[in-house]
Specification:
The protein is mostly helical. The protein has one domain: Growth Hormone, Chain: A, CATH 1.20.1250.20. It has 15 helices and no strands. Helix 1 runs antiparallel to helix 6.
Length: about 425
């Protein structure tokens, strides 16, 4: 009998692409999302001024509208791709992304811009869900975690450079020029996908598109202890990261007065995720997903506790904030790919639907937590530090419940 365990090495379905090109293409597709998110950070003050937004925190809606579209869009993407294949749904999402970026360029009002951002988020829902599904179609177990980590390493390089790139674009033009860049990138990624990425879901593994079939797939996903548990834990971690992203522009420019140096500080902190992704890809095959991600989660809670204590005492200078934020992002890089792989591990038969639900749960719950923290910004780092600790502590509690108290080794017995 063929080996179908978590350690199955690989299922090659992405020919004619070799392994390296496959990882780069998956990363390029996934990068549509963080590029559209993080390039906007230095543009927020200018967008607020252009549309006469009087309340400083309200301009964060440019980011949250995108995340809302991204979160809700994922519910439908998985079942559609499980029934009709990965390629048509992926290409449709990428076309929507390009159209939405063009709408943002011409947006005459703040409300139209927010609509364009929701549509951009919907488009990237397809790229995020289907990229994960394609990896699950082609690889399993620790090999899947390694592929996800390699893709994440390239993918995470985008947030490192995106704010600085956005700042550079604004030096040459103004904030609408950022959407010109997003449009061009979307077209390039679309053409690359059309000509190089094959269909990875065979006809005999597709599911009928019916209420009964979709309900069964949703039920199989949501009742799996491991899948649901790691989706909820990842939501907590994503909430902490999104709280940082939403608050970063105000923290670095309003609290720490970095001005135009903000993108450099953001890039330096974000670079730690790429380092963590590289290390995870090298170590996960030897140490396993649980040992790495559980250790990182415990470390992240400790980091959050130090950050909260320092903020509460009014003793959180810039250097310490950057060190703690960098450590948080490094921990995130060790957790998120492994949490994704652990959640998807039992879902070979429902990869598209499982990826949809996983993405929707992590995005919407994470966005809710991050938005609450972002809107609580009061001119100090304390709201962020409080949210950081609450999100990571909640994630640790969920992992403990999921694994029945047994961290680092072995899986919880199925229920």
């Amino acid at each position: 009998m063929a080996d179908t365990s978590a350690d199955t090495i690989e299922i090659v379905r992405h020919q004619p692409m070799a392994f390296t090109e496959f990882v780069i293409v998956i990363a390029a597709i996934m990068a549509l999302n963080p590029l559209a998110m993080d390039m906007m950070l230095p543009a927020l003050p200018d967008i607020g001024s252009a549309f006469h937004i009087g309340v400083a925190n309200r301009v964060q809606a440019v980011l949250t509208a995108f995340v809302i579209g991204f979160g809700f869009g994922q519910f439908a993407i998985g079942p559609l791709s499980d029934s009709f294949g990965r390629r048509p749904v992926l290409l449709g999402g990428m076309v929507l992304y390009v159209i939405a970026s063009l709408l943002a360029i011409a947006a005459p009002s703040f409300e139209t811009l927010l609509l364009a951002r929701v549509l951009e988020g919907l488009g990237t829902a397809a790229t995020r869900v289907i990229a994960t599904s394609i990896v699950r179609d082609c690889y399993a177990g620790r090999r899947m975690a390694s592929v996800v980590s390699l893709a994440m390493m390239v993918f995470i390089a985008i947030p490192v450079v995106a704010p600085a790139f956005g700042q550079a674009v604004m030096l040459l033009t103004q904030w609408r020029g950022i959407f010109v860049v997003l449009t061009i990138y979307g077209i390039v990624a679309l053409l690359w996908t059309i000509f190089r990425l094959p269909e990875t879901l065979p006809d005999n593994e597709r599911k009928p598109f019916s209420v009964a079939s979709i309900s069964a797939a949703f039920r199989a996903t949501l009742t799996n202890r491991q899948t649901l548990g790691y989706a909820l834990a990842a939501s907590g971690i994503f909430g902490a990261v999104l709280a940082y992203v939403l608050s970063s522009q105000q923290l670095f420019t309003g609290v720490y007065h970095l001005g135009h140096y903000f993108p450099l500080a953001f890039a330096a902190i974000s670079a730690t995720i790429a380092v963590a992704g590289f290390l995870n890809a090298r170590l996960v095959g030897r140490l396993g997903m649980r040992k790495i991600s559980h250790s990182a989660l415990i470390g992240c809670v400790a980091i959050a506790l130090v950050c909260f204590t320092a903020a509460l005492l009014g003793a959180l200078p810039l250097w310490l904030f950057m060190v703690l934020s960098g450590a948080m992002m490094f921990s995130f890089g060790l957790m998120f790919a492994n949490f994704t792989a652990l959640a998807m591990e039992p879902q070979r038969a429902n990869a598209g639907t499982a990826s949809s639900l996983y993405g929707s749960i992590t995005t919407l719950l994470g966005m809710t937590a991050g938005a609450v923290v972002g809107q609580a910004f009061d001119g100090t780092p304390l709201p962020f530090a409080t949210g950081f600790l609450a999100c990571t502590a909640t994630a640790l509690a969920i992992v403990l419940i999921t694994e029945k108290g047994r961290l680092f080794h072995g899986a919880a017995k199925p229920v």
